[in-house]
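All the exercises in this workshop are built on plain-text protein records. Sequence and backbone structure share a record, each on its own labelled line. The structure tokens are whole numbers drawn from a learned vocabulary of backbone shapes. The record below serves as our worked example for the rest of this section.
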Amino acid sequence: MQVVFLSQWRVLLRVSRSLTIKQMAMVSAVVMVFTFIFCFILLFHFVQQNRYTTATHLESVARSVREPLSAAILKADIPEAETILARIQPAGIVSRADVVLPNQFQALRMSFIPERPVPVMITRIFELPVQISLPIYSLERPANPQPLAYLVLQADSWQMYRFVMSALATLVTAYLLLSLMLSVAITWCINRLIVRPLRSIAREVNDVSPQERVGHQLTLPRLHHDDEIGMLVRSYNRNQQILLRQHEELNSHATRFPVSDLPNKAFLLALLEQTVAREQSTALIVVACETLQDTAGVLKETQREILLLTLVEKLRSVISPRMVLTQVSGYDFAILAHGVKEPWHAITLGQQVLTVINERLPLQGIQLRPSASIGIAMFNGRLPAKPD
């Protein structure tokens, strides 16, 4: 059950898509949408400003010919009216001038610039062409003057179309550059402020060895003492301290080591107290396996458990049924050898332990040669224990 849990835990910690890519994609999408809206509004603003400038110019041209045109229309002198209209300087803006009577009858038309086709969609969106209508009154106005006719000036739609295309090209370039700069800038800020601290925390948690997992404490980032990341780290550290206390309490009451199911340190101490109280002659052989410690960051959790159980079976093969094999830590074992009275007997048993541990061990395609060191302590009845 524990092996399955550890494998699932490692799968969950595997990153398939970086948070940097996700937040950059999200920031880029949001920036592009809002920048597009901004550039779209800006385009209509520029076109509206150009329409206003063109209409003002057309009105200025119309006022410059209104009085002589009014006199010519009042005299019904069509050739004179045509001559007056011909004197209008188009300046690349005025394309056509019409004289329309109050009954909507077109009395006169003068074209200055050949009309060139403009896409229908552009004319509908930007309401082209731009034109003004200026009423023409008699020089002697009565109390309620009525216009003699209307002078209608129309701007060149092609010039307005060229302006729209030029403004659109400029805004598209500005849109792309602005989207790129804002995406990079905002992404860098988010990455610096959020992603990097979270990535550092995730890597630190992922690199914690199984032996240090309980009670592990995260390092609080330097610039995140008073924000949500700081609260996350403090909450994690507090919960780890609570788990460490609970683990220590459980270990103090437990008598078996989790993986090997061997008696643990608390059980060993109780056996030693019982042996001393009964004044039995015994030997204590402590075996420290450096291989288990060295492979903590190399082998997978399942491989380390297989290695541990294999070493336990080898140790059991060299001790008699009267002796008790215990595990006092993740790397250390202890053999309580009852009935051993002579030092040479304890030394022989220790050499047998070293020999069986140092044998070559194949482990899922990996050839290991475990190594260990031992310590021996003797107790003879009422005499105190002494190292050998």
In short: The chain has three domains: 20-172, 209-253, 255-387. The longest strand covers residues 282-289. The first helix runs from residue 2 to 12. The chain has ten helices and eleven strands.
